[in-house]
Design brief:
Layout (H helix, E strand, L loop, with lengths): L1 E5 L4 H13 L3 E5 L7 H11 L9 H7 L11 H10 L8 E3 L5 E3 L3 H10 L1
Parallel strand pairs: 1-2
Antiparallel strand pairs: 1-3, 3-4
């Protein structure tokens, strides 16, 4: 089963969900704005993505929210994680994880295809 972190107001999230339905795969929705990830969950996703927190940050949303982002370095990594957990709008979306652990930020057809194929 694929888990999808989404914001229903996001067009990329709606597209990803439509692709999952069209592919006929089982999936579970997590509305991450209503149920933000924990630091541990975010760490787990980042490890599977092979990325750092700042790599999946929505910096435009940070500016809109008046949030000053920390430096993009290892010394501030924990600050990034806490900031993203406290302000989940900063997390790029949608994030999809297949049962085999394949995880993608599903903003493009190739990423969506990769996670669907893994299922």
């Amino acid at each position: 089963m694929i888990e999808i972190w989404l914001n229903p107001a996001c067009s990329k999230c709606r597209t990803a969900e439509s692709e999952l339905k069209a592919a006929g795969v089982e999936y579970a929705v997590r509305r991450y704005l209503d149920e933000p990830p924990t630091v541990a969950e975010l760490e787990n996703v980042l490890a599977r993505l092979g990325l750092e927190p700042w790599d999946i940050a929505r910096t435009t949303d940070a500016r809109k929210l008046g949030i000053t982002l920390p430096a993009r370095d290892v010394d501030h990594r924990a600050d990034w994680l806490e900031l993203m957990v406290d302000n989940p709008r900063l997390i790029q979306r949608p994030i999809l994880t297949a049962s085999d652990g394949t995880t993608v930020v599903g903003r493009d057809p190739e990423s969506l295809s990769r996670v669907i194929a893994a299922e």
